[in-house]
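User: Sequence in, structure out. Go.
Assistant: Echoing your sequence, followed by the structure tokens.
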Amino acid sequence: MERSLETQVSQAVEAWLRWLPRWEPATHRGRVAPCRRCLGSPILSAAGLGSDVPHGVQHGLSTRIKTIVDTSVAQYTARNLPMLQAELDHQADRNRSRTYRPAEGLEPEFEGLPMDPDPVPGAPFLFTIAGLADEADAAVPALPPLTEDAKAALRQEVRLADEYASMVGRETCTILLRHRLRIQTAVAQYVEPQIAAMLEELTRSLDAPFDTGEGLPGV
């Protein structure tokens, strides 16, 4: 398992490093709500991507690594947890029957992010992508109910899946530590200069907010 995980983590880091030169700072208004995937993530801690690194840079890596963990847990579940696998299969069938699935097939840099921008007070949306997705979901029949015994057995299998996910997550973070220097070097090369340029531009605009370049009257 370690060798397989090590290969997958290395490939994920390489993919992120290839993407990083294309990153640019966002010019739109920042979000109010923190990203639940990235906030306090041990993956980002292992990679050395602290709170001073822009969220877009963090998200692209954390999503790629989380996919590795999720895939490992899915394989473990398919082999060892039949009740949980059956529930997941039912849910997958239900999801495939939806007519609108905007959150599927996204690039890692966008996966898991809110589908709509934050609302502006006094300017309501005519519609939202999330709202359309909810409407499509409501049209699909609910899953059949479980007996109490089935619920208890399912909770036990969910607990086992969570324990396995924690184990794989810890191992993944240990492997990710080996790539920390390369990750931080790439951030210094491609991200920090862009942030420094933005701060310099902001400093210039704050130092001379009304400067027209014509000098002061009478001078």
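User: And one key feature?
Assistant: The first helix runs from residue 2 to 19.
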